């Protein structure tokens, strides 16, 4: 196999630096400088510490799918020859596959590769490093993919951030799938999240190549000062950096890393700058919020355009913060979903068509705590439903939020985010939560070496999952998760000094307005039950317009948050995927930047229809007339 051949990176000669690096020098003077490369004799950017790892990916190991192709990405999990000691190439292949499966619907009915999207073989090189923003305790991972078919005539750099808390490949199904085939280089950042879990049981974390390494033997993706009691330390939750507050800086730094690495890749055409290389920012979910944060911080006009899908974005004094509505959902939604209006919602009922017992018990517990007055589940569920409606939840958002509730995602997200906002470590997470390896009978134990070896490639960045459990915040009642849900909600609602750190952490995530001339397009599913449009995109678009901006906005009917969920029985037939609309918006931005097409003041809204029980069709997507989305 050709691929993952590491090239040595040290030498001693500087070349002319791009202007943006000169401007950044005073700000980054406190950061250690990185080694130079034999490839061109150029210094790495000052915000990079340690090596820049360069690997080649050709033949059966390409950039977009690590040689798996569409069928391989959709197929069974790729394997390791040695289960406990996977190679860097094996880890990379599985990380790419995991990222694709976590974001896209690759199922036989989903239409990927037929109605929209494609996974061609894209040979090229990767440049990867650890980067630090000023004051950070832990790095964020940056990665540039440079296709051999890079279009030197129309220089293009796509910059993106991972969705959710995923690792560095977390947006490959959006940014990589759109950008690489058309000759763009693609710069990624994990934005201070990712699955670089640290395990004190063997004192190991994740090295630059994705493999496990002991503390002190290599630079690690995340290395906490100390961890007691055998708790697993997770970068997003425990770095002490509140990374969400700096997601925009991570994105801009990734863009600058991308330009510097393009200088290395094509020294005869250096320097690559924002003036001669158009930089397109795109991301979805948390990655969508990250590129909008970057747009608001882009004082140097690095970005040429932004397309944000289903963004986790918070506008000052408008909308609602994620921690606010997620802790509310965690507490109230189990009962509200017991209302008969949700009888047909996917995952809202047991296989026998009954309300899950724990949800009925939640209604009883809300009554016991004086939060609802009804004495029967039906009345209690109705009150819980009306409570959420009063807070801005729509029926459509609640219906799809049944999946988030059934999978216990609200508790997982809010426990991790509370720790991040309050800058807590692995041993002092709020509300008694902690992460531990899952041992015998589901209790805390020691991680299986085979499972641990694959964490970087397999894990989502927020436990539980992949042999790591979320423990604490529970009791032995029929509604075991209620104590933690109530405690997390109280962190938001209380005004005590002890909870001030959480509110300060949330306040630090507020977005700043993008410049009025920057093309911005926000694409969001009307049925999003994780990041409802009423709390995120709609306040942002209205607010930015009030600041003189001209963002385009698509609120796509029947689209929800997780395209990957569309492969679940009874789920995909009620919805359409969101990715094709993101690709379409990026196509229009490309036409504007490279072909001179006017940037529209308004765009026709798609008119999709639910997929139904058959395969997705072009007609199901309801794209505006004359817009096509065949495989690229």
Automatic annotation (TrEMBL):
Family annotation (Gene3D superfamilies): alpha/beta hydrolase
Descriptive protein name: Hydrogenase
A GO MF label: hydroxybutyrate-dimer hydrolase activity
Keyword terms: Hydrolase
GO CC terms, sorted: extracellular space
GO terms under biological process: butyrate metabolic process
Organism: Dyella jiangningensis
PROSITE patterns: PROKAR_LIPOPROTEIN (PS51257)
Pfam family for this entry, one: 3HBOH
């Amino acid at each position: 196999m050709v691929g993952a051949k590491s090239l040595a990176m040290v030498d001693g000669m500087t070349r002319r630096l791009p202007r943006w690096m000169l401007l950044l020098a005073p700000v980054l003077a406190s950061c250690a400088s990185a080694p130079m490369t034999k490839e061109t004799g150029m210094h790495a950017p000052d915000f990079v510490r340690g090596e820049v790892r360069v690997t080649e990916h050709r033949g059966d190991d390409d950039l977009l799918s690590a040689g798996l192709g569409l069928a391989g990405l959709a197929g069974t999990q790729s394997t390791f020859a040695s289960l406990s000691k996977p190679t860097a190439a094996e880890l990379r292949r599985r990380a790419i596959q995991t990222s694709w499966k976590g974001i896209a619907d690759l199922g036989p009915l989903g239409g990927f590769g037929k109605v929209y999207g494609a996974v061609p073989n894209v040979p090229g090189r990767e440049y990867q490093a650890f980067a630090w923003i000023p004051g950070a305790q832990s790095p964020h991972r940056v990665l540039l993919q440079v296709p051999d078919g890079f279009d030197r005539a129309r220089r293009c750099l796509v910059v993106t951030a991972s969705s959710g808390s995923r690792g560095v490949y977390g947006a490959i199904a959006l940014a990589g799938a759109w950008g690489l085939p058309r000759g763009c280089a693609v710069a990624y950042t994990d934005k201070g999240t990712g699955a670089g879990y640290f395990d004190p049981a063997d004192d190991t974390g994740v090295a630059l190549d994705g493999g496990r390494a002991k503390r002190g033997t290599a630079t690690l993706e995340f290395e906490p000062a100390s961890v007691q009691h055998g708790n697993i330390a997770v970068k997003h939750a425990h770095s002490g950096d509140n990374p969400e507050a700096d997601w925009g800086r991570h994105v801009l730094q990734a863009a600058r890393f991308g330009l510097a690495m393009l200088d290395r890749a094509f020294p005869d055409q250096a320097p690559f700058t924002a003036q001669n290389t158009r930089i397109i920012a795109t991301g979805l979910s948390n990655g969508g919020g990250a590129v909008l944060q970057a747009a608001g911080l882009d004082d140097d006009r690095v970005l040429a355009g932004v397309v944000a899908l289903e963004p986790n974005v918070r506008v000052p004094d408008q909308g609602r913060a994620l921690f606010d509505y997620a802790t509310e959902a965690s507490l109230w939604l189990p009962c509200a979903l017991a209302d008969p209006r949700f009888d047909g919602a996917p995952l809202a009922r047991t296989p026998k068509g009954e309300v899950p017992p724990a949800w009925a018990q939640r209604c009883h517990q809300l009554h016991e705590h004086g939060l609802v007055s009804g004495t029967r589940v039906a009345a209690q569920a109705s009150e819980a439903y009306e409570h959420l409606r009063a807070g801005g939840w729509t029926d459509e958002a609640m219906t799809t939020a049944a999946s988030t509730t059934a999978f216990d995602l609200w508790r997982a997200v809010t426990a991790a985010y509370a720790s991040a906002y309050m800058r807590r470590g692995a041993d002092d997470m709020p509300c008694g939560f902690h992460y531990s390896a899952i041992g015998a009978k589901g209790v805390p134990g020691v991680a299986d070496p085979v499972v641990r070896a694959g964490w970087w490639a397999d894990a989502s960045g927020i436990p539980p999952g992949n042999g790591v459990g979320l423990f604490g915040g529970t009791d032995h009642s029929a509604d075991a998760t209620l104590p933690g849900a109530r405690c997390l909600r109280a962190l938001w609602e209380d005004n005590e000094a002890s909870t001030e750190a959480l509110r300060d952490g949330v306040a630090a995530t507020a977005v700043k307005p993008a410049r009025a001339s920057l093309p911005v397009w926000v694409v969001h599913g009307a049925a999003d039950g994780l990041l409802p449009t009423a709390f995120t995109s709609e306040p942002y678009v209205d607010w930015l317009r009030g600041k003189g901006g001209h963002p385009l906005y698509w609120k796509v009917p029947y689209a929800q948050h997780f395209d990957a969920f569309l492969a679940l029985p009874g789920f995909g037939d009620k919805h359409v995927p969101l990715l094709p609309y993101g690709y379409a918006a990026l196509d229009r931005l490309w036409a504007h930047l490279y072909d001179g097409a006017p940037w529209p003041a308004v765009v026709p809204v798609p008119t999709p229809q639910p997929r139904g029980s058959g395969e997705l069709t072009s007609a199901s997507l309801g794209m505006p007339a004359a817009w096509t989305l065949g495989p690229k």
